[in-house]
Amino acid sequence: MSPKWYLNLSIQRKLLLSFVPLMLITISFTGFLSYRIAANEIASKMQVEQASMAKSVMDHLDYITQDAIHISDYLYLSPDIQALLSSRTPSGGYVSNTGLFNSISRLMVTRPYFQFLTIYSEHFPPIQFNNKGLSSAIPFEEYRTAYHYDALLKEDQTERWSIETPEQKNTIFRGDSLNKLLMTKVLKNDVSLKPEGVLILGMDEKEIRRIYDPGGEDATVVIVNADGSILSDSRGRWAGQNVRQLPFFKEKLQSVHQIDTSVDHDQWIFTRSRNPVSGWQVLVFQPKADLLQRLSRIQWLTALVLLVTLLLSIPASWFLGRVITRPLSRLLTSMGKLQQGDFTQKVNTEGLDEIGRLGQGYNVMVHKIRELIDEGYSSEIRRQDAELKLLQSQINPHFLYNTLNTIAWTAQKNGDDQVADMIYSLSSIFKISLNQGNDMIELHKEMELAEHYLFLQQMRFARRLTYELDVAPEARDILIPKLIVQPLIENAIVHGIEPLPSEEGMILIRASLLPGKPEWLEIEVTDNGVGMPEPKLAEITERLQSTPVLGPGTSDSFALVNIMNRIRLIFGNEAKLNIHSVENSGTRATLRLPIPRR
């Protein structure tokens, strides 16, 4: 229910308070929905771009790592290297193998991203190659101690990737400040398959970064080793650190397998790609704040539309309210004058909308009231003149049956008792049928009327007609529509008994409560007349069962149709009138009525 203060407002203000907020809410919701849809679409597009970027970076890295493995395999299988691994050249001496150095030089020059190469073995002095010439490898004995050379030879893993930064305490290459991505490979004797040395192939991490650097994009690319070490990142901040130190996680990272679930997805759009061979992972992070910044135009546009809508909707709704309320105000003013007795009122209406039709109806009403008042004054005098004449000429219904009783008394006085009885019966029929103007009558009175009618018919047929009335005591006072049994009896006499050639006619009238259903009254009128053929019975049954009842029909069904229409008007479709008839055997009319509550 609307609050009282709102109901007391004028229509103009109601329109203003309803129309303007509705428009603002609709536009706000549309803007919010557009913002959400655009954000989801851009986020999906970014994730697709990130996945493409991650795959591209991984493809480049795969190419470089495979190339590094090919170089190491080539040198491992080189006869010169195998000769050195089999020799016993003092580690402090100098290896003078021009062919070996030429091979290494060709390999390194054709692949500029490989800039450092060192071979350590206890059988010969370290072999070094540096494209940039800014750093040199540490001596073998220092490497042996610091990097657990002997344990490294016993490991099953033949290639190992690591990152070396200037901040680390122990480094293999010294003399520059570069981050170096290193591949360490164990070299074995091809005859005995005994590990005899290690090959270290290094790349400048900046050169790797140039391959996948997203440029001006806000995305951050991080390359992580299988053990969680960061090999490279597009910002150049975290190389050599553990992935746990990245600032993109909402909870502490326990393992590299928990990266997906630990990333703060509310602030970052995240994608990763993993190489199942090397175990490397490419992680791509992009802040969602950049996404929201791109969508700020939708927010500003929505705010601008809201402001413009507010500025336009207020005067528009006010004007619309004036258009609606102005004719209503004129109508209210005219109604006030009408209440004061001015019946010459009339409002000028424009248009055929609801308000226009209301004004036209008001004008017609005022005109009719004025006509009725004028007619009332003139008819009042005519009514008073006619009242006396009406009282003088009025015949009270009681006068009719009183007169019939007087005639019956006169006939009885003159010794004609049969005529007196017939007149008494007719007078009783007339008196009962009037029923003081009521449409409903008690069942025993209706049966009394039927008995008077049967008495008169018995006089007509010269004792050829007998009848019997059986009314259950509990049904005597039930109210039924008056003059509803007599037409059934008349129908039985006219169409059943009268056509009999000479046989004695018998009519049985029974009224009782329906067995098992005390809320229903059943009235049966049975005769032993000529009955009716099946086609005729089917036609009458179909007419009585139709809705509405088809009528008036032929003369033999007129009374039945009339009864059916009456009981349906009073009791609805629950009331039933059924006709059962066998040709040359008689007819039974059954009337079932719901007992009305008093």
Number of helices: 17
Uncertain regions spanning at least 5 consecutive residues: 382-399
Give a short account of the largest sheet: 5 strands, antiparallel
Round the mean pLDDT to the nearest integer and report it: 77
Percent of residues in helices comes to 40-55%
Main sheet: strand order: 2-1-7-6-4
Number of strands: 18
Global geometry: elongated
Radius of gyration over C-alpha positions, nearest whole angstrom:
58 Å
Beta-strand level of the residues, as a percent range? 15-25%
Intertermini distance: 39 Å
Q: Strand pairing plus helix content: what structural class?
A: alpha+beta
Task: Explain how this protein is built.
- With 598 residues, the chain is an alpha+beta fold.
- The chain has helices spanning 4-7, 11-77, 79-86, 98-109, 140-146, 149-154, 205-212, 259-262, 288-294, 296-339, 354-393, 397-413, 417-434, 443-460, 486-497, 534-545, 555-571; strands spanning 114-121, 124-130, 136-137, 159-164, 173-174, 180-188, 195-204, 220-224, 230-233, 268-274, 281-287, 440-442, 465-471, 479-481, 505-514, 517-527, 576-582, 586-594.
- The chain is elongated and about 175 Å long.
